[in-house]
């Protein structure tokens, strides 16, 4: 099992999360590329820290939405979206090389992530961008999403993920952040929830129904309050249960 987190999201004087602490816990790091968060110097610091810790790095690509932290829906043309994703991957590849590591996978962020899970046109644009840059890049995507099959049909390796700190709808989609209960905060409850899912493949939706999620990675959002404690508790529970932790992509 892999544990991933969204990192490199600080911007100038504004601090977002605790990258150093998270990198001592997670096995994969989704590093911002400057479109929704992150400045070049801060991104480079995070990449260097990831390299020191042996954490595998992925490009956390997004809509160009600094003000909205990449969480506002957008409708770019295919030409724009393909180019935006290529640009972000390329920027992170350059910084990663300077930091002594490499970009092994791509995880879209925020509104882009949720849109491409079910929007075929934008999903195909992101797939096209990965294929244009490096077909060996792995795509990290929402468990149960139609995007997974489409990407695999185009030849990409795809890994599905489950979210530790987000509530699920009955259909396996994430509850909108605009709704009460969408983001989970109790570290002990979240850790127990993830252990139960890892052992049974089932998670409880916000409506109370049990749903099945097939995934090989757990995401803990680095910007969530108490993210470090949450990640620590999840890792401790999985370790205690004998569930081996390893990155899904080769370093």
UniProtKB/TrEMBL annotation:
Source superkingdom: Bacteria
Catalytic activity of the protein: 5-oxo-L-proline + ATP + 2 H2O = L-glutamate + ADP + phosphate + H(+)
Any one GO MF annotation of this record: ATP binding
InterPro entries: Glyco_hydro/deAcase_b/a-brl (IPR011330), LamB/YcsF/PxpA-like (IPR005501)
Keyword line: ATP-binding, Hydrolase, Nucleotide-binding
EC number per UniProt: 3.5.2.9
One GO-annotated biological process of the protein: carbohydrate metabolic process
NCBIfam families (UniProt xref): PRK05406.1-3, PRK05406.1-5
Family: Belongs to the LamB/PxpA family.
PANTHER family recorded: 5-OXOPROLINASE SUBUNIT A, UNCHARACTERIZED PROTEIN YBGL-RELATED
Record HAMAP family: PxpA
Subunit structure: Forms a complex composed of PxpA, PxpB and PxpC.
Function comment: Catalyzes the cleavage of 5-oxoproline to form L-glutamate coupled to the hydrolysis of ATP to ADP and inorganic phosphate.
Protein name: 5-oxoprolinase subunit A
Species of origin: Comamonas flocculans
């Amino acid at each position: 099992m892999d544990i991933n987190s969204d990192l490199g999201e600080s911007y100038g004087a504004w601090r977002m999360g605790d990258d150093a602490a998270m990198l001592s816990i997670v096995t994969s790091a989704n590093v911002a590329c400057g479109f929704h968060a992150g400045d070049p110097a801060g991104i480079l610091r995070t990449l260097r820290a990831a390299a020191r810790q042996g954490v595998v790095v992925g490009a956390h690509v997004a809509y160009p939405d600094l003000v909205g932290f990449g969480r506002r829906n957008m409708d770019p043309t295919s030409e724009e979206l393909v180019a935006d994703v290529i640009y972000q991957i390329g920027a992170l590849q350059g910084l990663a090389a300077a930091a002594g590591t490499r970009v092994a996978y791509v995880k879209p962020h925020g509104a882009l992530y949720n849109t491409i899970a079910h929007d075929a046109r934008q999903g195909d644009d992101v797939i096209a961008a990965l294929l244009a840059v490096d077909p060996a890049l792995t795509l990290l995507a929402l468990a149960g999403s139609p995007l997974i099959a489409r990407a695999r049909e185009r030849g990409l390796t795809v890994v599905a993920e489950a979210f530790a700190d987000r509530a699920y709808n009955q259909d396996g989609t994430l509850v909108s952040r605009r709704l009460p209960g969408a983001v989970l905060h109790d570290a002990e409850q979240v850790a127990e929830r993830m252990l139960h899912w890892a052992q049974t493949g089932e998670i409880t939706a916000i409506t109370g129904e049990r749903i099945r999620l097939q995934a090989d990675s757990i995401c803990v959002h680095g910007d969530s309050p108490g993210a470090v404690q949450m990640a620590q508790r999840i890792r401790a529970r999985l370790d205690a249960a004998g569930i081996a932790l390893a990155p899904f992509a080769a370093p």
